[in-house]
Amino acid sequence: GEEVAQTPKHLVRGEGQKAKLYCAPIKGHSYVFWYQQVLKNEFKFLISFQNENVFDETGMPKERFSAKCLPNSPCSLEIQATKLEDSAVYFCASSPHPADTQYFGPGTRLTVL
Amino acid sequence: KQEVTQIPAALSVPEGENLVLNCSFTDSAIYNLQWFRQDPGKGLTSLLLIQSSQREQTSGRLNASLDKSSGRSTLYIAASQPGDSATYLCAVVRGQGAQKLVFGQGTRLTINP
């Protein structure tokens, strides 16, 4: 597709439950990024992929967060045992070339109660 | 550690005015800089990307400049319209490869009819 697609749009989980978010990058884009937006405008980088390979995961709280980009499947971001502070909007972005323009999806709003 | 700052945090101007949004970054070793707009409850829309070797980029009423040596970028909006009301974010990429964006906190712009 010509736009980055993210599902679901909203997700509500009780504390301790699992959450799984999906991202379909723009067709032909090899690079995928996940960002977390908290407190309105504070964007935090989580992880990036080059095709199905993790490129940079320095932003990931590894004990509870995991992500995958498998061939012919949407990319996914999974949070095991969600905490209240995981409440945020999670954005996926894709890019056709290294360090090129990143195109963002509409985001998934996760609310942890 | 790269830090990106945007001033002012909020700006309100009458329709038709020309305006400048500012972005500064602490590490001048950047690969490129992107300007985005974010409408309430929406994802990011890429406005302009400036490569580190460039001084400016233009798109319609928007002009972005980059001065790497001083760690500054400006976004100039000509003949502002109410539809320009949004939050504007700048973000820098440090190097080639699937490099993460480091975002500023954004400037919330309101154009009054």
Can you walk through the features of this model?
The complex is a heterodimer of chains A (113) and B (113). Helices cover 0% and strands 51% of the residues of chain A. Chain A contains no helices and eleven strands. In chain A, the strands form two sheets. In chain A, strands 2, 4, 5, 6, 9, 10 and 11 form a seven-stranded mixed sheet that branches. Chain A has a four-stranded antiparallel sheet with strand order 1-3-8-7, with no helix packed on it. The N and C termini of chain A lie far apart (34 Å). In chain B, β7 and β8 form a beta hairpin.
Give the terminus-to-terminus CA distance of chain B. Answer: 41 Å
Radius of gyration of chain B equals 13 Å
Structural class by sheet pairing and helices of chain B: mainly beta
What's the number of helices of chain B? Answer: 0
Shape of chain B: globular
| Assembly level | heterodimer
E-strand count of chain B: 11
What is the makeup of the main sheet of chain A? 7 strands, mixed
Question: How much of the residues of chain A is beta strand, in percent?
Answer: over 45%
User: SSE order of chain B in H/E notation?
Assistant: EEEEEEEEEEE
Number of helices of chain A: 0
Biggest pleated sheet of chain B = 6 strands, mixed
Characteristic key phrases:
heterodimer; A: about 110 residues; mainly beta; seven-stranded mixed β-sheet; four-stranded antiparallel β-sheet; 11 strands; globular; B: about 110 residues; six-stranded mixed β-sheet; five-stranded antiparallel β-sheet; about 0% helix
How do the strands and helices of this protein lay out in sequence?
The complex is a heterodimer of chains A (113) and B (113).
Chain A: E1 5-7, E2 10-13, E3 19-24, E4 31-38, E5 42-50, E6 53-56, E7 65-68, E8 75-79, E9 88-95, E10 103-104, E11 108-112
Parallel strand pairs in A: 2-11
Antiparallel strand pairs in A: 1-3, 3-8, 4-5, 4-9, 5-6, 7-8, 9-10, 9-11
Chain B: E1 4-7, E2 10-14, E3 19-25, E4 32-38, E5 44-51, E6 56-59, E7 62-67, E8 72-77, E9 86-93, E10 101-103, E11 107-112
Parallel strand pairs in B: 2-11
Antiparallel strand pairs in B: 1-3, 3-8, 4-5, 4-9, 6-7, 7-8, 9-10, 9-11
